Amino acid sequence: MAIDLSETLVIGISATALFDLSVADGVFNQQRKNDPDSAMEHYRRYMLENESQPLPDGTGMPLVKALLALNDHKKADDPQPIVEVVVISRNSPETGYRVLKEIRRRGLNITRSAFTAGEAVTHYLDAFYVDLFLTTNEDDAQRVIDTNQCAAAVMRPPPTQAFQCTETQVRFAFDGDAVIFDDTSELINQTHGLDAFHQSEDERQDIPLEPGPHAKLLIKLSKIQERLPGRIEYSPVRIALITARNSPAEMRVIKTLRNWGVYVDEIFFLGGLQKARFLKAFNPHIFFDDQDAHLDPAASDVPSAKVLYRSTSALNAVMHDKIRQKNKSQPD
């Protein structure tokens, strides 16, 4: 009988998000500069020669280990795992052997994987029931966002500062607009200014915000909390919403979450304060945001990932135009 993972939180993760393969990638990229025709063979040989060497943690490793530990809380009469992690990689099966060997060496309970030898991996996310796809490949993440298959994010490099995560909880930190919620409100902020944004949100506080690219993930996490033992306030899954919004734009957020039936443990309405300061205190296993201005200072302290805009989004065009204008204004 086929296995159904529809009630399980399924994380799809690339090999480069799970492990730090930056040295191997550097070998491939350098050879591609020198001799593109031989780059793949050179990379294959490097991976074979080093397949017994341990791989360091990638940015997604703390999250994966903490999520897999949630299965220890599964009730005896619950037939489905709480969490499933699937490695979905552009490596070939041959070069992916090193990844599989490292998974076994670490004793990670990851039993499913796919290696596509350079082909896009996004075709297989639905087949694996993936709720969240974590990758270092921006093209793959963009394809997922554009097709609305599932939540997706581009992982930043691992934190440069010592990162000590709690082992008794899995901690998620989400931005609000353009991540949990759609980008309509943020578009007003970017095109008409903060005052217009505040007025619009206050006037529409009784109208729920539309779901954003990570809304389904948040709702799935809320359902996972219900499957776990104990009161939800003491759940081994803890969720924080960390947003640049402040009053009078805060009420619409809380009313929207109520409308969705979603429980969030902590909300921070920061009104322009740097998110990194609060993230360092909350200490999440992963932080999702759409703007580099928030991700850059946070990524040195906590695992962080960028949520891309849809290619056809008006906000995407506005933000790219602002970047171009900023680059033009800078001296050569």
From TrEMBL:
UniProt-listed Pfam families: 5-nucleotidase
GO CC entries: cytoplasm
Matching PANTHER family: CYTOSOLIC 5'-NUCLEOTIDASE 1 FAMILY MEMBER, CYTOSOLIC 5'-NUCLEOTIDASE 1A
InterPro entries tied to this protein: 5-nucleotidase (IPR010394)
GO biological process, one term: nucleotide metabolic process
Protein name as catalogued: 5'-nucleotidase
GO molecular function per UniProt: 5'-nucleotidase activity; magnesium ion binding; nucleotide binding
